Amino acid sequence: MLDINKIRADFPILTQKVNGKPLVYFDNGATSQKPQVVIDAISKYYQEINANIHRGVHTLSQLATDAYETSRGKIQSHINAKFAHEVLFTSGTTHGINLVTNGFAAILKPGDEILVSALEHHSNIVPWQMLCEKTGAVLRVIPMNQEGELIMAEYDALLSNKTKIVTVNHISNALGTVNPIKYMIDKAHEVGAAILIDGAQAVPHLKPNVQELDCDFYVFSGHKICGPTGTGILYGKEAWLNKLPPYQGGGEMIKEVSFEKTTYAELPHKFEAGTPNIAGGIALGTAIDYMNEVGFDNIQQQEKELLHYGTKRLLEIEGLKIFGTAKEKTSVISFNIEGIHPYDIGTIIDKLGIAVRTGHHCAQPIMTFFNIPGTIRASFAFYNTKEEIDLMVAAVKKAQLMLS
Ligand SMILES: *Cc1c(COP(=O)(O)O)cnc(C)c1O
């Protein structure tokens, strides 16, 4: 069991007051808070070893390079990638997906098909649409049901030898649905298609095993797993990363440059042009160490209780409807109250210290599916408590009274 008070003491921001009230932070789906060890890792880098990496022969440059590459190794073992060079540092999920779509521009032909799911975040829709415009490939959508679950029979029917790549999130940011990605990966491979998993909402709750999953690409952001903003990871199978052309040209990603011809560096440097977010990459490794110390079993246990308790308490409120009722679901509750705009609730409860997300959560097609302007989304992390849920429920009830 988690010692919740000890865990909370690791996060300095959680003792803050907001609008004169104790902060209740339920916007973890947008970004998580950072423990002191991660904050310290960033300042320690700048105070003690700041230098550019992979370049200088001087001591600081070597220390910085070692710290950065050690962090890559931590992430490799965390996700169980076969090689460290299959783990690319990015600025986040969005960057990782764009790197892959850019590479596929060199592969796709007119009439090829890309399957995307109805549950995606805009950053896993728009780059694929741009890719279709560039190549003449066709985007097809895997539909979902009223519970917010993807319909596997429809997925099976959409797959064909025209399918070149499938892209789907592991867990939906808007509804919390956990998708059957192992099934989807195996099915995609049966027709010879590649598959990308957007793990942005999964890595805060579980430890993905990319070799066991056998996915071709797995992307996530650092800032949703207690790490710094502007950091992220693209895992890609070696064969795919060798096949795809580089994304950005510049320093670090080359072997030799002349005005006649440039040859590219080996993986992972081929995809890591320019000076990266060195402090961030190092601190991301610290964040992953921290999460593992807390333990993913403990994290899941705590979040499961919060989901169960939060669902029960919120449903006490008259006229409240939860969107996303999948059997497999993570600690996200998206809801609306009859006759009240989500934004109005969000604004009032913010005054009471409760931070939730309101709006379309960068997933407008989901809102269109349910025919709503948006939802109020409470997303819980392992450092949240039932007492905080009680505060939110009281605040929502108060807002409901004021608005009706
Ligand atoms: C947050 C999120 C993204 C985008 O991540 P960035 O860190 O903004 O690049 C993509 N997909 C899902 C499912 C997300 O939750």
UniProtKB/TrEMBL annotation:
Organism field: Flavobacterium omnivorum
EC number: 2.8.1.7
One GO BP annotation of this record: cysteine metabolic process
UniProt entry tagged with the keyword Lyase: yes
Alphabetical list of PROSITE patterns matching this protein: AA_TRANSFER_CLASS_5
Matches recorded under Gene3D superfamilies: Aspartate Aminotransferase, domain 1, Type I PLP-dependent aspartate aminotransferase-like (Major domain)
Keywords: Lyase, Pyridoxal phosphate, Transferase
Protein name: Cysteine desulfurase
Requisite cofactors: pyridoxal 5'-phosphate
